[in-house]
Amino acid sequence: MAFEGLSEKLSNAFKKLRGKGRLSEADVKQAMREIRLALLEADVSYKVVKQFIAQVTERAVGADVLEALSPAQMIVKIVNEELTALMGGESAKLTIASKPPTVVMLVGLQGAGKTTNGAKLAGLMKRQSGKRPLLCACDIYRPAAIQQLEVVGKQLDIPVFQMGQTDPVEIAKAGIQHALDHGNDLVFLDTAGRLHVDEALMEELQNIKAAVNPTEIILVVDAMIGQDAVNAAKAFDDALDIDGVMLTKLDGDARGGAALSIKAVTGKPIKFVGVGEKLDQIEVFHPDRMASRILGMGDVLSLIEKAEQSFDQQKALELQEKLRKNKFTLTDFYDQMLQLKSMGSLTEIAGMIPGVKASDLDNATMDEKLLQRMEAIILSMTPYERENPGVLNSSRKKRIAAGAGVGVVDINRLLKQFEMLQAMTKQFAGGKMPRNMRKLMGKKGGMPGLPF
After folding, report:
1. What value does the CA radius of gyration of the chain take, rounded to a whole number of Å?
2. Buried b or exposed e, range 243-261, using 16+ CB within 10 angstroms
3. pTM for the full model?
4. Predicted confidence (pLDDT) at residue 150 exceeds the cutoff of 90
5. Using one digit for the tens of pLDDT, what is the confidence trace for 90-100?
6. How far apart are CA 47 and CA 261, in angstroms?
7. Helices in 67-108 by DSSP H: which ranges?
């Protein structure tokens, strides 16, 4: 999980401050030492850490903080604001050309996930912005690079333009012409990478840039290589003047140093992050939301957006109507479980909930298995049994247990949980939602897909 170690250490530093009613300058400086060590251990650039600590300290030793009723909270607020500023302040969008097609040139070292994540980005633009993207295979060196692009393109239902092993500059020009001829308003040029930065690579990329004048140059870097990612970003920026960065494998980087250093070192924003292996696991990078996650404040906005993308609005409305009529069945329970699974892993979802730390999720794999077991039990029932769980007698339960590969005790546990959920949904349907729950959901209504 991204920033796991950093979140833990920052949380411990703030906990010591919260135990004190008033803070002295010495207390603040001690906390800054701990934050400094936490950032360095997270592989954040030394120069960046030094500047960050100086800015936070300057604000934290002011009278407004030391004389505040809750100085510890004020310091958390300052760190949150400075982390947000460090990562760019606001989310940076992909620039769209005034006259289509918008040409996005994807560059980076070999192994960063350029081909797959370029396709992910094309898929995101298609889903969220209604674009008609074209993937253009300009990597003629890496074995099976063209085939890989065609495979992911087919999975995302995005066309791929390729001309085999010919001049990459000519492929890029022909790909853009193909987009003009076929109504594609967004072209992603998947260029070649190397295992390290070298003159031949940069010369080829500069030639492509000069020939097609791309709207954006996006650098794709692997977050897990830490400071090497920052060094690569600086080298590519010096040679090509990149417009932004896409960080891949952020979900596997427990330190997160690259995400905290790139903007400060290159001046170029992180625009997108890859957060998993699936082709829909890509997100717009929001510095303020990421800062909140790092500080254990969660990321409710991203959680709601993820829910909106995953939940079927029509099914949600049908479920609401069933709840009003008190007809919530195991079939509905199963549908909700499937939609929850489509949001991603429980660890990923829980990380967006305020107050949940990575260390609290040690048993998350067990929860995933529990969901699978519940799914197997429900699928082993007949449609009639799912709609009418009250008919499940001893012999029926034994048959279901055999089909699902579980014990009768597991079926009884599931039915008990279902009964509790039914009782709770009756309250929601009757307008008896607890006041604090209503406050959490806000004035505009409930979470998408949920029956309240």
Report:
1. 26
2. bbbbbbbbbebbbbbbbbb
3. 0.67
4. yes
5. 888 899 999 98
6. 9
7. 71-86
